[in-house]
Design brief:
The protein is α+β, with helices and mostly antiparallel strands. The chain is 46% helix and 23% strand. It has 14 helices and 22 strands. The strands form four sheets. Strands 7-9-10-11-20-17-16-13-14 form a nine-stranded antiparallel β-sheet, with no helix packed on it. It has a six-stranded antiparallel β-sheet with strand order 6-5-12-19-18-15. Strands 4-3-2-1-8 form a five-stranded mixed β-sheet, with no helix packed on it.
Length: 620
């Protein structure tokens, strides 16, 4: 590398770093101001809600003076307007569920089989009764009945469910309204029914829906808070199994205009979902996402206002399922409603590669190999074997172009100033020798979907969560092999060794490719300048990769390192044992003497070049 090239590389890196630091600082100031505004509004809303609840509770406690007001406000539910809140804890094999008699709601879920990154109990959510609140309109009450203000009686006490049994937990309000939960002995799926009895005379004629206000605060469970925020938000699906998301990359307040089959509050590896047995959730659901402040471990605040059809019958029932568990492809696929699509493994081609190739191989290998680092190594080898024909064709084309280089240089020297003639002569040489100038491009491009599919698979693979390999203590997040005493924009306060190894092998790939790839000569000052710039970028690009992989999952960085290492090994073996350059020279000379018929593509290219030459001659 000459002195000018080194100087150019250094200047480009310095300019890029200065611009990154400036842009990062400006963006940070903007985000901090935005978060302060959002948090202030959230605190105001929360204070307003608590004040209204406290006022309501104060009135309820003073029953001697306010019985008439209670009867007016709560109608047939006046007996449930006061009471004592009790928590009922139901434990099965996989979860600890906490229910509140006030509101008859699930207020807390702990997943027993998982821990946070810092090895604390994994609380999926912990909320208040008003965070899962139904609103009912009845004729005997002056205001809407909020289930979060009612005190329900229960048929169960805290207990642990015995094996192979299901427990039915029934909350009752004045024998008029019930919340019924069916809890299995294992697993993460609860059957939930909201049921009204004998309210046919109480329901207003214009009451067609029952409203549900659902709020949830997502707390960080992993190491990389920034990545969690990017992968967290609201997912939903209609009855056609079309899945969409809201608020993954930025805050949103959005109305959903299509009927919904299920809705999920999802984070990186876990989610809470409401799943209807039929098309019960109506259109115009309102969903809001707000990102947490950087100084807290809160990922996002999620809010949804949903409307269910109420009906005018005597025994109204809303039947749903509630899922509170991991984003496991196997767990979510059992619903047969497309819910597994919340796992971001990619769509179209990438999704097919992951669903029908990567995931089956990954799961099959795990049946025999407990170490995921070894599994990733074997998976990388399998993928490289699958793409071996593409690699071979690309390498073969590169060798053919290297053999033709002296003749191409002669044509460029002779016709370099007349690009149209040079192009025609170049195509003629390719046709005579049977060499395609694009023979190495397409095979290489066909390998990239596999690498990009891995980029989508590894960060979202629940199986890799908190799995150790070598110096990485969690393959689902980055390995901070070197801790820095300061923060570098876009890089962070650490260095990942797997990412560094990926950069080193990528740079080695660049040097090896440049050594074996024919370098064009001539072509004018502009062409030479472009070639020099491309050469500089080829040196810079491997180091730019560090900024991308340094905070990615160590499984992905490890795979990228393996991908590069295996590619180098493949190319060396093919050049050493499979591709005979002497035989290729002999074949090219034979093709010159026995040229093949021009293909339609070659004929069109020659005609186009002739037309360009004619236009150029006319201008002269």
């Amino acid at each position: 590398m000459d002195k000018n090239t080194v100087t150019g590389i250094v200047l480009i890196i310095l300019i890029w770093l200065v611009m990154s630091i400036y842009n990062t600082n400006q963006q940070k100031k903007f985000e901090e101001q935005k978060k302060k505004t959002q948090q202030t509004q959230i605190v105001k809303d929360s204070t307003s809600t608590k004040d209204s609840v406290n006022i309501s509770n104060t009135n309820i406690v003073d029953t001697s003076a306010n019985n008439t007001q209670i009867a007016a406000d709560f109608g047939v539910f006046s007996n449930s307007a006061s009471g004592t809140q009790e928590n009922i804890v139901i434990e099965n094999k996989d979860c600890i569920f906490t229910f509140s008699s006030k509101g008859a709601v699930l207020t807390k879920v702990e997943l027993k089989n998982y821990k946070t990154y810092f090895q604390k109990p994994l609380i999926l959510f912990s909320q208040n009764p008003e965070d899962f609140n139904f609103s009912l309109l009845i004729n005997s009450a002056k205001k809407s009945i909020e289930t979060s203000e009612l005190y329900f009686t229960s048929n169960q006490k805290s207990t642990k469910i015995a094996n192979n049994q299901a427990l039915e937990l029934v909350f009752n309000a004045d024998n008029k309204y019930q919340h019924i939960y069916k809890i299995p002995s294992e697993g993460y799926i609860l059957d939930f029914t909201a049921k009204a009895n004998g309210l046919e005379k109480e329901i207003p004629q214009n009451a067609e829906v029952i409203s549900l206000k659902w709020n949830q605060v997502l707390h960080s469970q992993e190491r990389n808070l920034k990545e969690e925020r990017i992968m967290s938000g609201v997912y939903y699906s209609d009855n056609e199994k079309n899945v969409d998301d809201i608020g993954l990359t930025k805050d949103k307040d959005q109305s959903i205009e299509t009927p919904i089959q299920w809705i999920s509050f999802s984070q990186k590896f876990f989610n809470t979902a409401i799943i209807t047995e039929s098309q019960n959730i109506l259109a115009n659901a309102q969903v809001k996402t707000t990102t947490g402040n950087d100084t807290t471990n809160i990922i996002k605040y999620l809010n949804a206002n949903l409307k269910f059809p109420f009906g005018k019958n005597n025994n109204y029932e809303l039947k749903t399922k509630i899922y509170v568990g991991p984003n496991s492809f196997k767990e979510l696929k059992q619903f047969k409603n497309g819910m597994q699509k919340i796992i971001p493994i990619g769509g179209s081609v990438l999704g097919w590669i992951n669903k029908f190739l990567v995931i089956p191989i990954f799961n099959f290998l795990h049946n025999f190999i407990p170490n995921y680092g070894i599994i990733i190594l074997i998976l990388a080898i399998i993928i490289k074997l699958i793409t071996l024909p593409f690699t071979y064709k690309s390498q073969l084309s590169m060798v053919k172009m290297r053999v033709l280089k002296p003749e191409l240089d002669e044509l460029r020297e002779k016709y370099g100033k007349d690009q149209a003639t040079f192009g025609a002569k170049q195509m003629e040489l390719y046709q005579q020798t049977g060499v395609s100038p694009f023979g190495g491009c397409l095979p290489m491009l066909l390998q990239w979907p596999f690498l990009i599919a891995m980029y989508r698979f590894f960060p979202s693979a629940l199986e890799l969560r908190q799995e150790k390999f070598l110096w990485a203590n969690d393959l689902s997040t980055y390995d901070a092999f070197i801790k820095l005493p300061f923060n570098i924009p876009m890089l962070g306060d650490h260095l990942s060794l797997f990412a560094i190894l990926g950069v080193v092998t990528s740079f080695a790939m660049t040097l090896y490719t440049m050594k074996n790839q024919p370098q064009q000569q001539g072509g004018g000052e502009f062409a030479e300048a472009m070639q020099k710039q491309m050469k500089i970028m080829q040196y810079i690009f491997p180091f730019m990769i560090l900024f991308f992989f340094n905070s990615s999952s160590s499984a992905l960085s490890y795979y990228f390192f393996l991908f590069n290492s295996l590619s180098l090994l493949q190319q060396w073996l093919m050049t050493r044992f499979l591709i005979d350059e002497t035989a290729i020279r002999t074949q090219i000379e034979y093709n010159k003497k026995n040229p093949k018929k021009k293909s339609n593509f070659q004929q069109r290219m020659e005609e186009m070049m002739k037309q360009q030459q004619q236009i150029k001659n006319q201008k002269k």
